[in-house]
Amino acid sequence: MKKSILTGAITFGLLVSGSGHAAPAQTTDLLKNVESKVIEWRRDFHQNPELGNRETRTAKIVAAHLKNLGMEVETNIAYTGVVAMLKGAKPGPTVMLRADMDALPVTEKVDLPFKSTKTTNYRGVDVGVMHACGHDTHVAMLMGAAEVLAAMKAQLHGDVMFVFQPAEEGAPKGEEGGAELMLKQGIFKKHRPDVAFGLHITSKLPAGTIGYRSGPAMASADSFEIAVHGEQTHGSTPWNGVDPIAAAAQIVSGVNHIISRHIDITKEPAIVSFGKISGGVRSNIVPEKVEMVGTIRNFDMDNRQQIFEKIKTTATHIAAASGAKAEVEILKGYPVTVNNPKLTAQMLPSLEKAAGQDKVIMMPKITGAEDFSFYAQEVPGLFVFLGGTPLDQDPKQAPSNHSPYFFADESAFKTGTETLTRLTLDYMAQAK
């Protein structure tokens, strides 16, 4: 990954005594005082993880903390979401800060004093529950930033909107959830922010390092389901029926040609992958039906729609040519996560102050997805990554997010809390 180089940096009068904000010493002291609390909160959430749309305990702790800080707090949004408003003493923009709260159906294998031993039944299977993506750290760091910013209320030029979101990893089957549902239920109609900031801890960077990218940063994530209907017959006389397996094989080949032959990948890269194909029960029976599912990843919203259309056309036409019939369903997931270029450039100095200039790097595109993308479609957004791998470990060898061995070094939390705080204060100062 290429290190960022800031040329022609503009020096803003941020967080300096006499600017209307807290002096650097005050901000530093507040951040230092909250550091141990962030670690304590995180350990508690890690030991008590909850799946999407079921984060009741987490939400209760978050809401109580924000109320104790004197904020207006709304709960039970999109099932368990919490939204709080910190009203600054002086006029200015509204800055949104977001943290996701949900855990994953993963059995933890990290030997920690606060290791999760929680279990649940997920889609008919008994599994462990673990914060294998670090959302526990996101909640704790945002709670810390909330405490710091609340203590500075008298100096704030604007308001802060704290969004603690459920179900970023996806809602349970049959339910809506996440950022999309929070927006659907009107959180931006009641309080529309001027900008939205978020961060995500990652094992791919050393602890305390900040990774960013301007423009498309994370892929859209959509899925598709294809049902190929044929006519069942004996395997020894396939001409007496219609073979959906043969048609499905040709559909896989045809769909895999969409990216290489129909999509302008000079604009942005894209991926289509099949994840499951099922059909038939024994060797000598041509089945009646084959089912296929897969995923679509892409960094351009126009390409995204074109891929949808091409999958439908390719599958239905190939099936028809074989005498079969294909039914295609595109299941829209998360849009492309786009960091507003102007906002990214504007806030880069804030990232460098929080982590140190030598610890802020430009990230490559990530084919994973984030539902922060829904907020960034509504208002200018900036979503960054916080390194969480211990400094004595090679991030390339570290267990990835979603692994049962995922581990986040607590030394990174100070940087994350400061990043959220500085982005807020600096944006307000620049908007004066």
From TrEMBL:
What is the species of this protein?
Answer: Thalassomonas actiniarum
The UniProt entry, under SUPFAM superfamilies, shows: Bacterial exopeptidase dimerisation domain, Zn-dependent exopeptidases
Note the superkingdom of the native organism: Bacteria
Tell me if Iron is a UniProt keyword of this record: no
> A Pfam family this protein belongs to?
M20_dimer
**GO molecular function terms noted in the UniProt entry:** hydrolase activity; metal ion binding
Protein name from the UniProt record: Amidohydrolase
In terms of PANTHER family, this protein maps to: METALLOPEPTIDASE, PUTATIVE (AFU_ORTHOLOGUE AFUA_6G09600)-RELATED, PEPTIDASE M20 FAMILY MEMBER
Q: What are the binding positions for Mn(2+) in this chain?
A: 133, 135, 169, 200, 402
